[in-house]
Design brief:
It contains 7 helices and 2 strands; from the N terminus they run H-E-E-H-H-H-H-H-H. The protein has 208 residues and is mainly alpha-helical. The chain has a single domain, classed as Arp2/3 complex 21 kDa subunit ARPC3. It has a two-stranded antiparallel sheet. A hairpin with a 5-residue loop joins strand 1 and strand 2. Helix 4 packs antiparallel against helix 6. The protein is globular, with a radius of gyration of 19 Å. The two termini are 22 Å apart.
């Protein structure tokens, strides 16, 4: 009989890699509806929702592997970003920082949502996707956008206010989806959270 791995275990197995691949696909599919660009050619897209879900469901390590897999495929030329964009050029353009933010954000989201190996709860999930999926992404994206476009950080920050309502909506959707998965399909997550009572027989046996 196999036992669930400890919540902090960094080792990846084939199931982890399969989950990472699935969520990389989810992020790519969320780019299919297309996008429209605002200031500086930065697109408004649903793909950030996929990044939020990858971090929240898979945790910091596998979530980062999932996002990293997508970005690696984009780098070699596959048109997996919204609007059919791909190739190394996207990593030196105005959106480069946001793509880096996806990777860092997935780690932050997973770390907060699964803090201490705990079962995700709605308030920690929302905090995780808001901090990692919005604040971290902006913190990585805005300075590099400012640098590439040779404008002030304050100008880039003001321009990015157009993204805020949509990103808040994505955070709410991600929180609802994660909550539904916890209740209805906990196997979607990398870790399982058995009841504390499950440890009682083992402890009792050790005390005999």
């Amino acid at each position: 009989m196999t036992h669930p791995r400890p919540a902090g275990s960094p080792r990846l197995d084939t199931t982890d890699l399969a989950r990472a691949a699935i969520f990389a696909g989810v992020i790519a599919v969320l780019g299919l509806p297309g996008s429209f660009s605002v200031f500086g050619g930065v697109p408004i897209t649903a793909q950030t929702l996929g990044v939020m879900l990858a971090g929240a469901v898979l945790g910091p390590v596998v979530g980062a592997v999932s996002v990293g897999t997508l970005l690696a495929l984009v780098a070699i030329g596959l048109p997996l970003l919204a609007g059919g964009r791909g190739g190394a050029g996207v990593f030196v353009g105005p959106t480069a920082g946001y793509l880096i933010g996806w990777l860092v954000g997935a780690v932050v989201i997973g770390a907060i949502v699964h803090l201490g190996g705990r079962r995700p709860v709605w308030w920690r999930t929302f905090a995780g996707v808001l901090i990692g999926g919005v604040v971290v992404v902006y913190a990585c994206g805005i300075p590099l956008q400012s640098l590439v476009m040779r404008i002030g950080v304050d100008q880039a920050l003001v321009a990015n206010l157009a993204f805020v309502p949509g990103d808040l909506a994505k955070a709410v959707v991600a929180t609802v989806v994660v909550g539904a998965l916890v209740r209805g399909y906990p196997r979607a997550f990398r870790r399982t959270w058995g009841p504390r009572a499950a440890n009682v027989p083992r402890e009792a046996a050790q005390s005999r």
